[in-house]
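Example record

The entry below shows one chain as it appears in the dataset: sequence first, then structure tokens.
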Amino acid sequence: MDKKLTQRIFIFIILCAGMYFGTSCSHTYYHAPSHNVPLFKEKNEFSLLVSDISQIVNEVEVQGAYSVTDEAAIAANLMIRPGIQYFDLAGGFYKPMGDEYIFEIFGGGGIYNQNHSYTDMEYNSNLNILIPVQYGSANITSFRSYIQPSWGVTGEIIDMAISPRVSYFNIYSVENNITDTIVGTYGYDQSRIVNLMEAKRHYLFFEPAATMRVGWKYIKIQVQYSYTLPLGYCNFDYSASNLSFGVYFNFSRAYFDRKKV
């Protein structure tokens, strides 16, 4: 058992190390939610995850899932971060393969709202200091859909999974309230990006992730690393890599039946 645990942790570290950590600058217009990977084994299991993204302050994600039958499951995801609110619903299929190995696939979609305010520092020659300057705002509403297969191994102490997700990002409402139109300035550059988003509204992203959970049978600490790669030209800044930490709960009907005894 110890040897198996060591091997699984080593494989997870290799997977994370093999992914390139990108960075995003200026305003980020696409931030992929964490992967919801319940790894169900049977009917009437319920999972709940509360997590945050390590690079972002004041972000929270809540994910839930429920196995409706011995093969079908439903899921919901909520992400709230500064300037972005996202919620989706999904349905899926899962298949245990032996005592530990699981295959599952989920597909879903939801609404992705963004509210951006633009401020930059400019030099004031009269005061001889840098002062903040407001350049307006932008409100962007999109529909995001995805398909996410996962392969994992689950046990009482450790869970591990990989999930190569593909997401479709459809921008259907853009409200550009940026006031600065002087070429070469910060406000003009951001306004140009928002206008390009309005002109090209459809994007595909490949979003692979590696997930590891360690703890007790019903409660574990989860660490997940995911990477976002546009499939085609992308004319705006996006969050290329995400590292999240959270607390994962998994309960079945058998657990609640024991509590009643």
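Notes for this example: Residues 2-260 form a domain with the Lipocalin fold (CATH 2.40.128). The helical segments are 2-17, 186-199, 253-260.
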